[in-house]
Amino acid sequence: MSLWLMQWKRKWAALLIVGVLAFITGVFIKAPRALEHYIFHQWEESASQVDLIVGYKGSPIQIVASTLYRLENPTGNISADTYEYWQGHPLVLTATPIALGDNVQGHPLVGTDSSYYSWFELSLKEGHLPAASGEVVLDAALADQLQVGIGTSLTSAHGRDSRGESHEHPLTVVGLLEAKRSADQSALFTVPQTYWTLHHSAEPSYTSVMLKLKSKAAMLMLPNIISQRTDEQGAFPVFIFGQLQKQWQPTIDQATRWSWIIAAGVMLLFIAYISNMYHSERNTIAFLRNHRGSTASIFMQVFGNVVALMILGLLLSEFVIQSLIGVAPVVNEQMAMLLTVALGAGFLWIKLRKS
């Protein structure tokens, strides 16, 4: 029986802890950029897709958060005339209406037209897009979560809480989508007419209009135009995102510092634990020394599995975080992980040479 196998049988729990400590060290090494990517990259990607959002007068941040991310309630309703004005404006390439305010089992119900699906790359997997009042589509993964399929009848509720007042008009699932943005993956989509039916609206209205402009230069001209229009508020997502980034950056920087401090602390714990393992193997090392084993062969036989589990734990942390958030490795993180392996293996090698 090989020495490695004997060690696994005798000290499998201790060896498993080595892998777990290496995994935790790797997670904290990658945590700062993973956090920054999760907060900034996903939001920035959505913000850069829309040049301007027009909503009812109120907070521009609230307009962006409700329209793009469904994180806030809308500031109010704008008339269909507002949508028609911006749809026909010479500086506007695309105008897409958005109606919000209801939910289905806690998931936002978004009323919009067909331009939204191509704009945000929602691809149809099964069925068809909503064309009539009461028809809804949703991401296939969300459909599995809610245990619904094409033909399923659903009921919406007022507001963002599933415990809100229910509407009497049923909704019917007519299609399943594949969405890329997390905000779209957790929402149901319908036509704006559904909202007018559910709320018995005498006149068509929306909560906002998303605009894609014909040129970036138009962004400098439109604020003056919007300021002259009654009850309308313009929100430029990229500018709003820039303001939020400035507010969040100090918190992110502090989290980064703490993450590296914790990673260093786990590393020290890791070294201390390996030191304890070394002392528990002194009899084995002495036996191999008596049989004229070289330092290198003794190191591989006694501590090869420890080094292997260190590397495996670090690689597993890399794989898990990249799978969950999509954060690719960078040089400073790779160097930190190599340093972790070098410190652990180097410590054991030095102790072994001195024995």
Topology:
Blueprint: H1 3-47, E1 52-56, H2 60-68, E2 78-79, H3 80-87, E3 92-104, E4 107-111, H4 115-119, E5 123-127, E6 135-139, H5 140-146, E7 153-154, E8 157-158, E9 171-178, H6 182-185, E10 188-190, H7 192-198, E11 205-206, E12 208-213, H8 218-227, E13 232-235, H9 237-280, H10 282-290, H11 295-325, H12 331-354
Parallel strand pairs: 4-10, 6-9
Antiparallel strand pairs: 1-12, 1-13, 2-11, 3-4, 3-8, 3-12, 5-9, 6-10, 7-9
Describe the structure.
The protein contains twelve helices and 13 strands. The protein has about 350 residues and is of the alpha+beta class. Strands 1, 3, 4, 5, 6, 7, 8, 9, 10, 12 and 13 form an eleven-stranded mixed β-sheet that branches. Strand 3 (about 90-105) and strand 4 form a beta hairpin. Helix 1 (about 5-45) packs parallel to helix 11 (about 295-325) and helix 9 runs parallel beside helix 12 (about 330-355). The radius of gyration is 29 Å and the shape is elongated.
